[in-house]
């Protein structure tokens, strides 16, 4: 199966993943709006988590970011076999965090944060996460089909999914990490 054919086979799952992600952005935004103090605590915890990474040399930052995103995307694919629950949680957490960040950027009229820090690498990273979760959703559906006695080859689908991850998603995540560390990091 070609890359184009595989992505086409994911179209409904990509749509579902995208809609979950967008809904999570709204959830995060409106949660921050209704409880800004709690949202500020969440952002502070994120800053504290990321602070040691920002003090590393650039290559160390790249490795940490790339491996973290790679492992998360890999788990979204593999653990999608458990009825798509983990990919849903990945989309929910990433989308709601982005919603919180968008709320504070809007409240502080600080759109430079979004345009400089999030958009350039986020386009690739978000695309990779949505695609990984779509693959996870597809694998979850295949498990459900198998439970209900439909003839599907889990092994074949899993092999195709892992090939897609290694040949397409992993490089996309590497590109996002390179942009985040080596291009955006130079402007900070």
Distance from N terminus to C terminus (CA atoms, Å) equals 43 Å
What is the ordering of alpha helices and beta strands? Answer: HHHHHHH
The count of β-strands is: 0
The dominant shape is: globular
Short description:
The protein has 188 residues and is mainly α. It contains seven helices and no strands.
Helix/strand layout:
Elements: H1 3-9, H2 11-34, H3 36-54, H4 58-78, H5 85-107, H6 111-147, H7 154-187
Helix pairs in contact: 2-3, 2-5, 2-6, 4-5, 4-6, 4-7, 5-6, 6-7
Notes on the protein architecture:
This protein is mostly helical and 188 residues long. The protein has one domain. It contains seven helices and no strands. The termini are far apart.
Features:
single chain, 188 residues
């Amino acid at each position: 199966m070609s890359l184009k054919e595989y992505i086409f086979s994911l179209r409904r799952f990509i749509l579902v993943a995208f809609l979950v992600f967008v809904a999570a952005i709204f959830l995060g935004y409106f949660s921050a709006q209704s409880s800004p103090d709690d949202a500020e605590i969440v952002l502070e915890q994120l800053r504290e988590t990321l602070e040691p990474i920002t003090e590393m040399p650039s290559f160390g930052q790249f490795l940490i970011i790339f491996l973290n995103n790679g492992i998360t995307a890999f788990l979204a694919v593999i653990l999608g076999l458990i009825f798509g629950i983990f990919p849903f949680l990945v989309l929910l957490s990433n989308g709601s965090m982005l919603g919180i960040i968008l709320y504070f950027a809007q409240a502080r009229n600080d759109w430079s944060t979004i345009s400089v820090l999030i958009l350039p690498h986020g386009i690739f990273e978000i695309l990779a996460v949505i695609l990984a979760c779509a693959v996870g959703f597809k694998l979850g559906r295949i498990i459900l089909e198998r439970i209900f006695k439909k003839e599907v080859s889990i092994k074949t689908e899993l092999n195709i999914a892992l090939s897609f991850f290694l040949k397409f998603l992993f490089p996309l995540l590497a590109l996002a990490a390179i942009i985040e560390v080596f291009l955006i990091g130079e402007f900070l």
